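pasting for ref
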Amino acid sequence: MIFNPEESIDFHGFTGPFVQYTHARIKSILRKQATSNELRVPSPLLKLEKELIILLEQYPTTIEQAVVEHNPSIIAIYIFNVAKLFNSFYTEHSVMKAESEEKKQLRLQIAAMTANVIASGMSLLGIKVPERM
């Protein structure tokens, strides 16, 4: 393995800064709008909304698998996949200009849950995530 300093700070790849940037982006969205504590799921969910919720629900199982296998890379790969899926979701679906207030609140909740999972997973790996970048 050869260390490449340019790749290590890339915001578009399998890197810590990519995940950290995603977390900072989500926190920026959340600062702009307070979310309701109650999660009301409008139907039907769009494909990426559903995929992201399902992936976020897998977090406890992912941690358990990493512990059982003594393999922290399982968490790193999972967190990267969460960040990647959130970025796809965010690119396709507006959070702040959602079709309805209900959809906006759902997307804000998804963003908050995603930020929490990213922060928690990165913390388990000993990596801090910024609130702003």
